[in-house]
């Protein structure tokens, strides 16, 4: 009878050990799955951040290129307006000089 009780206790202990092992195995597998999921999420977030930086860099480059083109165009327009203003001023001075000659009666060929 003592042997039967010992056998039952040993059997119960084995079942308890197997249940605890199964629990720990499930817990380890669940933990591993969660860690893998977190690793994939972290990688995805990192890759998304890198992609966002690439897009921002491309936009910055396009913006800088566009600004450079606009600056070049503005410089060309400014140079043209400056040339035209200078020509108009030269024409104005020339007409004043012609008027002065006409009023004073000086000819272009006179020496002074």
Structure overview:
The protein has 112 residues and is an all-alpha fold. 92% of the residues lie in helices and 0% in strands. The model has no long low-confidence stretch (mean pLDDT 91).
Number of strands: 0
SSE pattern, N- to C-terminal? H
**What structural class results from the helix and strand content?**
mainly alpha
- Unreliable spans: none
Share of helix among residues? Answer: over 70%
Mean pLDDT: 91
Count the DSSP helices: 1
Beta-strand residue fraction:
under 5%
Shape: rod-shaped
Largest sheet, in brief, is: none
How far do the termini sit from each other? 151 Å
Rg from alpha-carbon coordinates:
47 Å
What descriptive keywords fit this protein?
mainly alpha, 112 residues, single chain, 1 helix
Layout of secondary structure:
Layout: H1 2-104
Task: Produce a short descriptive summary.
This protein has 112 residues and is mostly helical.
